[in-house]
Amino acid sequence: MTDNDKKAIVLFSGGLDSTTCLAMAQAQGFAVHALSFSYGQRHSIELDKARRCAAQLGVDRHLVVDIDMRAIGGSALTADMAVPKDRPLDDEIPITYVPARNTIFLSYALAWAEVLGAFDIFIGVNAVDYSGYPDCRPEFIAAYQNMANLATKAATSGDGSYRIHAPLLHLTKAQIISAGLELGVDYAATHSCYDPDAAGRACGRCDSCRLRLKGFAAAGLTDPAAYVEDN
After folding, report:
1. From CA 67, how far away is CA 44, in angstroms rounded?
2. Can you tell me the distance from the alpha carbon of 215 to that of 171, in angstroms, rounded to the nearest whole number?
């Protein structure tokens, strides 16, 4: 049961993490306003998954915003670069990092929150089983929350204080999956791959696929997503 006076913006890609994060926000009683982005990502199938998951989860509203990050480039997800496959999952920041992506996404979420009179923003970042992106670290989340309360009319006028919720931040992928299953998340409806084939099947070899598969294996489960090697 949600309280329409208890609104939250949830950054929502349709992936495993963001879908779990959205389910957690709903479990806390928030009326969820899901925010997705068509930013020129090569794995745009995630938007189809996001729309289906949002409808399945019964969010109050799902907004998809267009941003042309291909005009900036600098990432294998938004430029004509090969997505790395089978690379060591080490501390080196890979070329799938999209410059300032979470900063940009959170800024849109903050703007929408201010319009809606919401003071809670959820983001499904993780700093345990992840690719080392700098905008997924706890220091970044804390700094952004501080900035949000300095930069907005609502906060500086005393209407409320913004809270950036990152409930997955310190969880392993297996723990995230287990938490999502307890909340009824259908992971077959989610998409994580950076380089799917034309049919939308996951490659199984990019960082995102490997972290996802590792999480399901650690949880003693089989990933229900469709993979290229399954056929």
Report:
1. 13
2. 11
Torsion, Cα of 17, 23, 25, 27 (10° steps):
-140
The CA-CA-CA angle for residues 108, 37, 93, to 5°, reads 90
208-211: list long-range contacts, CB under 8 Å, 24+ apart: 208/15, 208/96, 208/131, 210/86, 210/89, 211/89, 211/129, 211/130, 211/131, 211/173
Q: DSSP letter string over 53-85?
A: HHHHHT-SEEEEEE--GGGT--STTTSS-PPP-
Question: Which candidate, 29, 45, 47, 28, places its Cα nearest to that of 37?
Answer: 47
Q: How far apart are CA 189 and CA 187, in angstroms?
A: 5
- In order of their start, the domains of the chain are 3-230 (3.40.50.620)
Sheet holding 120-122, edge to edge: 61-66, 30-38, 3-11, 120-122, 163-165
Q: Which two tokens stand for residue 189?
A: 């409806």
Separation CA 77–CA 195 (nearest Å): 8
Per-residue pLDDT tens digits for 75-120: 999 999 999 999 887 778 999 999 999 999 999 999 999 999 999 9
